[in-house]
Fold:
Amino acid sequence: MTGAVISVKWQAFMGIVNKMYFVIFATGFLFSYLCSFIVFSIARKKNFIDKPSKRKVHVRPVPTLGGIAIGLSFFIAMGIAFAVFPALQDEFLLKFFGLFFAGAIILVMGVLDDIYDLNAYLKLLIQVFCALMLIYFGFEIGILTKPFGDGSFSLGGFLSIVITVIWIIGMINAVNLLDGLDGLAAGVIGIAAFFLFIAAVEMQNLAVAVMSLSITAAALGFLPHNFHPAKIFMGNTGSMFLGLMISLIALEGAHKRTAIFTLFIPLFAMAVPIIDTFLSIIRRIIRKKPVFTADKEHIHHKMLVLEKSQTKVVLSLYLLTCCYGLIALSFTGLKGVFAIGALIIVLLATLRWLRNWGFLKF
Structure:
């Protein structure tokens, strides 16, 4: 009898939680969708336009700064999350202040970059400042469990700071590089964040769950305006903001569960932009060009040459992100030799895919 009562109460509780998550998602999605209309009108009126160029794919002027809608909707959804989950205030409120300040700085920098085209090194300096601020507020990887056996090891203060800064800056710029086709960055990040949300729910990590769901809502709410042919671009405003938030989701997840294989969950979920960024760095080093040099040889550009259709390329990368998302979910329950074996198989399959498509030819 007691077991039946507990079962009924548990089902009722899960029903409430599901409704709360739905409220967060619906609020963020609708705000992002509706706010995009406002940003579009202002950008067109003020002539904040992304004009065609040799290094860009679009052939007609398109209003930009859509990232403002993404950023605002994320913060609105997070505000709702704090309202419906009182426990979140105790465990995440202080970190959220750091997240809010850093996110606001990145949004402002993105707006200025989209309008005035800021110097790359100035942007890097601001990104480093934001990363250090976030470390001060507690976003940091400091301890990892050993892959085999019990116990853990500390990365050390300096090493922990360096790895965290590189991770945050790397993800900001990885998503920025991904934003090369209509709807690509918004869709890929929305899908990846959704899989991170599922993983967070399975691991009972409330902070990561609401952050992931808020990003999913913000990105997917913007997507109808941004899918080919795009009516508005998110610009660097949106891509850098999304990259920052995805990096913090991974850091918060690693902070709650220090198992080394937990780090592979966000890595696989974000495999498409991470692989593209890694190949871009190698390509530019081999050709002895500055790392910040823009080109049209990213994965999506090469696929566009072969497929001749933006829609087909974007949908293919959506599907690929879903596949990596499912792989990410599988790592929530893997440990030790099984995790290492699965990791090797995934890496070999990824290398085969890159080789077959010619992405390794520099």
